[in-house]
Each structure stands twice: as C-alpha cells, then as structure tokens.
Write a structure and sequence with these properties.
The chain is α/β, with parallel strands linked by helices. Helix content is 46%, strand content 16%.
Amino acid sequence: MKKIIYNRFLKEWLADLPKVTYNKPIFVIVTEAETEKAVNYLLSMPILGVDTETRPAFNRSQQFNCCLLQVATHHNCFLFRLNFTGMTPAIIRLLEDTTVPKIGLSWHDDIRALKHLHDFNPGWFIDLQDHMREIGVEDLGLQKMYANLFAERISKAERLSNWERDVLSSKQKTYAAIDAWACIRLFEELRELESTGNYELHSVETELEIEEEFRIYEELAAQKGQGG
C-alpha cells in the first residue's frame, strides 16, 4: 500500500495526532574541551541532523545572537550552548566539514545566524525543503512536514522559551533534540520514497472540494426526502 502524502497539511489536522516522543541521550556541551570531543564523535557518524535556537525577542529594540546549535545522530543529540562556548575551532571544523551530510531545514537562515558569530565556509549541508518541493509538498515547516510523512505531531511549546537561561529545562532539551533528530528521519524517509516511488500525492484542495460536493448532495437529498 502506497503512503499518502498531501500537498498541504492543514493545521486543524495536527490536534488529532499523537505527540512525538524522544528517549535518546542528550548531551549539553558548555566548554571548549567538550566541543572538541563531541565534534570528533559526530564526524565519525554517517549522517547528522542540525538546527539552531535563538532567544526570542519580543520587541523591536531587542536582538539576540544564535545561542544553541543542535546536532543529532540516529542514537543521540548534542546541544552546543554557543553563549557559553563561543564558536570554537572544533565547532568551525564541524560546520566546514564536507565528509558527513548535515540535514537541516531552511538551513541558509541558520548559517547566516552562525556566521554572525564567526565567519566560516559552510560544508556539506542538505536542506529538507528542497527535497519536499521535489515531490510536490508545499507546506515546508518542520511540524507539518513531519506530520505529513509520519502522522505524528512535534510539539512547539518551547519554541519561544529563553534559550540563554543558565540551565536548560528538560523540556527545552527534548524540544531542541527532536528538531534536529526529526531532520534525519525526514530525509531518510524522503530518500526512500523518491527511490521507490511508493507514495501518492493528494491535493488537499481537491479533497476539500469533494467533501463539500458530498455535503451539498446530502443536504439536497435530505431536503428532497422531507418534501416527500
């Protein structure tokens, strides 16, 4: 049976989906020495998922730097607290690496934010949005893409929390890890679907039109029945 994918995923569909859980180890990196060990490990992996977080600004006079770099493997996730470590030589080496694919979402925005901290030449990064467009998907946010392909909901409750706080909460750490780890899952699923063609793209607009036509038909039928 082919997987059904929608060109758009309606917001109201999200509420009925089970929430994504993440039970893998999460390592918080706060010193330069830790960055070196973590990067050595990460660059031995076959694929990485990446994301960043920035403390939200709630008025125009505020502006904050990118303060967290999340890098996930299949088995765990590392949270580099850039507001503590800075852009160390190890982190630059990771970002400039051309041997391990790093999967992100709208990653050019993250690169711009990271370059504001320290200039570097971006290595091997793959943007999920490019692959989703290739199969006809138009809703390109992480939450809707994940729901579309896996029928699970990624909670965004921590998105506007303070990412510069002294100690990240367990909910913040889980949220950050899921965003990076989900990029790997999405990329590998997309690659599988593209290679096998084992999916059908459905148009939300067409299905909504069919539902509306059926509703009108039922109303007319009911009216006809009442009229005798």
